[in-house]
Amino acid sequence: MKKNLTLLASMLTLTLSANLYAADMKSEISKVLKENPEILYQVIQENPVEFMAVIQTAAKQAQQQAAISKKLQEQKEFEAAFSKPLKPEIRKDEAIRGSKNAPLVLVEYSDFQCPFCQRGYNTVMQLMKKYEGKIQFVYKHLPLDFHAEAMPTSHYYEALRMQSNELAFKFHDEVFKDVSKLKQGEPYMKQVAKKVGADMKLLAKTLKDRKDE
To answer: In this predicted structure, what is the pLDDT of residue 178?
Structure first.
């Protein structure tokens, strides 16, 4: 074992003092270590603190590099989205809020139970007020799996839209005033629908028909 350690030390010394032969020496050291892995084991056992410090530093550097790579990739995708923006499909029967032939078209993909979407709702209302007469707004559903009441609420919205666009948007506004109340489930949705003036019998029938489809 002492002989191996002495050999390793000698080779390291030669590597440091002979830069012209660094590549060759590195190859030789690698060969020796592969053939005699017990050398490394011995070094690690004798210097556990230093070894762990090296491992932690390497891991931290790897994490930082991964974070930088991810950020660069996200930036690249973000810039690509601007150069080739996606075009939303707007149906002929879509509920349009604002001026139907307005030059500005705002399409929002949202989740009724999402607190961040509630902030988005507030932003939309500000834009509708600021560009009144010049903007049309289309609401699209994007219910997330981990929001249990998001999908049922979207069904209520669509059922109300079949009665009138005005009812659907009134329901939309009431829900987004406090999305946390959706945790109460369907009783709360019915309460909001009744509040905005929905035909509750027709609403129940429409919802049933959708479930039976």
So the answer is: 95
